[in-house]
Design goal:
The protein is of the alpha/beta class. Helices cover 33% and strands 18% of the residues. Helix 18 crosses helix 19 and helix 18 packs across helix 20. The two termini are 37 Å apart. InterPro entries: LRR_dom_sf.
Length: 692
Amino acid sequence: MVAINCQRLLSSVLKRQPPKILPPESPSPPRIDLERACTADLRHECWLCFDLATWNETLNPIGLNLSEAEPGQLTLSTFTEQKHWLINFNEFPPEFPPNACTAFFIVWLPRKHHCIRYLVVDREVPSPFRAIPELASAAISGASPRTCLRHVCWSTPSENWQELSVIADTNTLKLLDVSFGAAKNQVPEEFYDLLRRSAKRLKKLRLRLPQQRVDCSFLGELASFRALVELDVQIPHVRSVPSSVARLLASGACNLRKLTLFYPKHPTGCHEFIQALRGNQTVSDFEVIGDCSESFSIVCEALKQNTAVKRLTLIARNTKDWLRVPARILAPLLRENSAISGLTLEDFVVTLDDAVVITSTYEENTRLASLVFVEGLVHYDAIQEFCIRPRLRRRSIMATRRIMRCEEEWEPTTPLYYFPGPDYYLRVFQHHDHQHDGKFLEELRSGLAKSVPVREVALCFSHPLDPSVADQVSTTLRASKSVTKLKLAKWDLSNVTKAVPRLYTAVFGGDRSEKQPSGKWVSEILAHNRRIATVEFDAYLSDIAPWKEVAPVLCNNFSITSFKVGGRFRDLPDFVVSRTTTRNLSLLNDAVRFITGADVGRRCGTAFECLAATPALREQLRKVTGSSEAHSEDLVQKATKFLAENYFVITGVVRRSVQCNPAGLAWQLDALDAICWRAVTNKLRVSDVLPE
């Protein structure tokens, strides 16, 4: 860790002089040679996360704790083990304007250190960069004319086309995410150059320009992006978007799997788009956003003859008024298209008539396995219609990622919605009022007491739980032996989650305008419940990376094998998380090898001993062997017995087995029988015996 004066650092760079190191101060952390740190060749992938929301916030994308710098200082850290180079800038010195520091961070550093592969720019960036043109020169301090960036996420409320052009010479991009809230001006030629240079390597492209109305001819470049796996184009006011996407689909983009499209009003190339989508055989996940019913009509017409799309999502984005769910349009699509297995409707109004049409069609389509409503306004009568359909209840899984609300003039919804699935029930408990605590607890107990095992429970509260209510919820969940997945939102439910004995998956979600899950109580959950194997942050919208406070807990956790984050941070890999999940997955596979007998050595025995009591091991065993839950439990018990009986062989103390030979009339330690030896091994672990 090194603390240096920002003024001296920038002066040395601009004047082509080596920076001066501040004298050490006690009790400051150990300091390193700044000149070596800034000029040495770093050989590992690094982050460069630049967030200018406030100057005093720590810019720390992976959650490592950096020491707080004094005002006017730059904290620069080089982590030998984590292989990340992080920059924490607290305050600009008055002698240097913000654009000088911006140029230093974004222009010079990525060109000097080619290990910087991820660039994230959030909020506004001081401009113009050209205030210090010599800083970006290739001749200064050994910086090259190009960067080696792979992931660039640039999201600002206003347009930053000129600022974005500083990376136009990059030809190594694999992900480009551009989101300008108020983009209205001319798109510079440098952005066209960036797209052309990245055409052969780019796998994910996201363009979100809600206010852009002119000069989107760069969309014509889409047809040359043959390596794209994911495409997200949301430009509502440009009518040529469907025709540009149609040319990409018709050009043979064989790798494209996910397509997100804002379908505008009165588009050009409508017939061309329908024909291209009908013939496409690669896109399996299709999200359509629209602000009028005509947009969804065109898409549904095109999908009638498409056999590749498995998951369809329709999202209403009408800022003036609510849109009714296009039930009359969806009905013929679901009758004719048997390939769609999942349908999600977001931000629509669902009335009783719509519910009747959807449920009738849904019962006819046996391939459609899931129907999900996200947000929107769902009438109470419509909910009742979904509940009373027996065939729908037997096959479908209906859930909400946030809150299913009712209009004020309708009767309030019950706190409990449940829809049986083929193998389990999904219960969504939504608690809104302190006055109904008793009713909520009663329905929670009755819902979990059904004859069919309840494996998933979603809890969404509009207010913090009283301690007494939280204790009763905790007691109820502790009594359940089948719940393996919990979805939590908004409020601290760490006390509740600690009680679930067989919890395997924990999903933390939030609302667009509501409280986000705090890393503090999430880390508390992971610290106390070591059985959790999968952690998900659904639609995470906070400005702080979710693993910032969770990272210290992950280092000592041996059960988490999957850590997924939605929202802004979904494409930003983290070393601590990656190292933890990779290590734990290796342990899990070793434990499975020990159970199946593929490898009964010391390494696999240690892994099995560490994970023998976790649900993750049983779940992985079921996936590998295809066995039932009861059979998997039986295999674990047999492996535990085998480990106890062969402890000394597995640890390498003896070669084959312990031989008990009599020695005349004298009693010796060797004369202990097998029961005594087993009693000794019960007090020991495989890891207690040191390897040679």
